[in-house]
Design goal:
Mean pLDDT: 80
Number of domains: 1
Shape: globular
Largest sheet: none
Strand content: under 5%
Number of helices: 8
Radius of gyration: 18 Å
Oligomer: single chain
Distance between the termini: 60 Å
Number of strands: 0
Length: about 190
Amino acid sequence: MGLIGLYLIAAGLLVAAGIAKAVRPDDTARALAALIPGRRVPSQRWLRGAVRTGALAEAVLGLVALGAPRPLTAALVALSYASFALVVAYARARGGTLATCGCFGRPDTPATRVHVAVDLVLAGAAAAVAAGAPSGGSIATLLAHQPWTGVPLLFVSAVGLWLTFLALSALAALEGARRLVQPVAARGTSAP
């Protein structure tokens, strides 16, 4: 299970994003409403409920995947991230680079190419873990076989989780702001 660190990042991100969307479902519901084609968009109340339910399921999957890195849980994590990549790519296609994906329950999380790439990398890592994980393993047995009983692995995974969150939120917001300012700056710097 050579990609276990990326898998732990993926599962941890599911927990963090799931909790964020469960607490603040409105922005994600609005983002989903913008992605639904046609005129028959469900009510905002229904969408909020659906987002909250899906977000809680996402957080529970992340917790279970963290505690039991087994083939089934890892495959579900891989499927989740592959689905997220498709939704983010669809959001980019529908609304351009400034469209929000609502991934962290906030409106300022634009759908970027980095987001799609991160989702695909995490899906691949989870799929690799699914292919090589023992069917009865737990995080405790996994960490017992790591140097220093897994403390370095957990530390690096926590740092990776934080950096991934920043890449998907703060870096994405900066990219969106740069794209808004770039056309204005280009007009203002033209030579006479």
